[in-house]
Task: structure prediction
Amino acid sequence: MGTDEQVRADLAAFLAHTAVDTRGFSVTREELHCVDPITGSDGEVYCKPCKEENYNSETKACSANYFASENGYKPYCDVTRQPPQGCGCDVDGVKQANVPLRSGAGNTDTTGYIAASDAYFARGTIEISWNYDYYGASLAMTGDGDFLCDNPDQVSTSPLHAWGVGIYKWMDKLTFGTTGTTAHNQAVKGNFGGTVEALYAELECPSNKWTSEIHVEMVKQRVAQICKTGSALGVYLEMDECDTPGSDCLQCEGLKEIYESCLIDGSCPDCPKWTEFLISSAPTVTPVRVESPTWDDWASNYGSRSSAAFTGTPDWPSASMAYLVFVVGSLLRVF
Result:
């Protein structure tokens, strides 16, 4: 489990990421790919996917039908990673669905919707997105790779699986598939930047608007959140270095600059006072040197060999035991 400080660092970093990926623990599906979800009369959830250039993150609205320019939905389908390397997905993508509306739904527009249970997109307390991520998480949690493949939306509807995939991504997901390091390993090294690199790599290290404007904002939120969770748990993590440097110490390019910038512009209000809340891992009692007992100490406590107190054979085992108790007690006061 590591030291107390490592446990707190691990938990602080984990909670910082989960807070960002769930938008403050308020969403269960990636909003960009599930705009205005509808629950049909069949009890299934249907999502309206949107392209990033058409999505307004403030209003949560999509300005164009995804299928106006696409024949199928396939952003997170890697067709080279089919079973048993990943969940099966169709090269042609997920087709539009005919949404069975509940009575009283009126004239609800169901154009451009897909069944949530057919699609792979970001879900979970720490996001999994791709078809191979769902397979790996399913295998880790249940021993059955097909469990989440059959219905990936279980990650949205079941808290057990939402947190389960987050823990899988944190503890088991390696940076290079079958080799490398994990976000957990970076956190216990006191390296928050390494956790960002392990989880999101080029999406956020460095982030830029040409890759994803959404992730430009998310990485800033991660910095703000680690200051908040780190303060709450009394532990400090570095942005770009490890307590124990080595070949498996990752760096997130640009993260330290974001941290320093937010200290100046006030966009991360918990960061300036972060270090004021640290819990010291140093000893709380100043060690005191204890001198060895002198003969006078011995004599005053246990009497002299010629003392009249000894009317027969001296009880040396008892005296020795008393002396041992005295020394051990003195040592305990030191530590």
